[in-house]
Structures are given as C-alpha cells and as structure tokens.
Amino acid sequence: MAGLKLSQKGSDFIKFHEEMAFKGVKRQDGQINTYNDFQLRKFRNLCKNQISSEKIKTILDYGGGGSDWDAPNFEPKTNQSAKEFFQIQDVHTFEPARGLMEKKKADCVVCIDVLEHIFIEDIPKVVSELFSLSKKLLVVNVACYKSQALLPNGDNAHITVRSPDWW
C-alpha cells in the first residue's frame, strides 16, 4: 500500500490478492469467482442518508475491489450508478490488487470488506490511515466470519477474523 509500510506478511497477502484479481477467486466449494463485486451495493440504503446529510461530494473507495462507481444498475429500481445514487462528484479507488495505488483525502472514505483481509499486525496502521484520509465521514464494514474465498496458498481469504466487539 503506497505510503504505508506493511509487515512482510501483509505485503505477501497483497500479492495473493493481485493473483486473485487476475486469475479469479477460488472458493472452498471449488468454484472460481471473479474479483468484481461492488460490496457497498449491499449497504447502499443504510449509507445513503448519512452520505447525503454530510453533503459528501468526494469519495475514496479504499480497497474497492471491482467497484465501478459509474456503471449503471447500482440501484436496480432506477438504473442509477453509485455516483448518481449518492450524488457524488468525484471518486478515487485505492485497490493495490489492481495497481490502483493513489490515495487522496476525500469527504468520505468507504472501506467495505477490506479490514478482514489485512494481516492483524497491520490493522492499526491501516485504521489510522483510514481516519487520516477522511475529511467528514468514514464508512467501514468488516466481515467477522470466515470467507468462502481461499487465498492461492489455500488459507482463508479472511485472515483477520475477530468478533464485532474486537473491531
């Protein structure tokens, strides 16, 4: 992660995710999935009021995976893109697995389904960075369970699974 010195294990996990973004994600059931989910879609209605009330105009999608903020159908009822749905002017995506290394301060930082993929030793540094990049709002969702996805070495993709109380 540009500007952030990760542990050796943390850097190794980034390489695994690069491979997964290129080759697909192997699941425990043997299926291969693409690395293209827009994780915020599941939480769009929960986040909409907060993003609107804070008058958010810029977003940094931290660990955005396959998020495409300009693609239609983020909101299926209206066929709106995520930018249209949230009335956002500018979005930058930081996704080291796809070589998107630029991190810009933004009104809101969105970090969905990322922290459980970070080696535990690196969590304090990453969380601190999330706060430092956000001008107004930080939206975080962390999965507190094992993933169906496996890393190329066979380990579970959720390498830091902790209870909600821990997070």
- H and E string: HEEHEHEEHEE
Residue runs with pLDDT of under 50 for 5 or more positions: none
Q: Determine the structural class based on helices, strands and strand pairing.
A: alpha/beta
List the strand order in the largest sheet. 4-3-5-6
Distance from first to last alpha carbon: 21 Å
Polypeptide structure, described:
This protein is α/β, with parallel strands linked by helices. The chain is 25% helix and 19% strand. It has four helices and seven strands. It has a four-stranded parallel sheet with strand order 4-3-5-6. It is globular. The mean pLDDT is 90.
Reconstruct the topology from this structure:
Elements: H1 8-23, E1 25-27, E2 32-33, H2 44-53, E3 58-62, H3 82-86, E4 90-94, E5 106-112, H4 123-133, E6 134-141, E7 149-150
In brief, what are we looking at here?
With 167 residues, the chain is an alpha/beta fold.
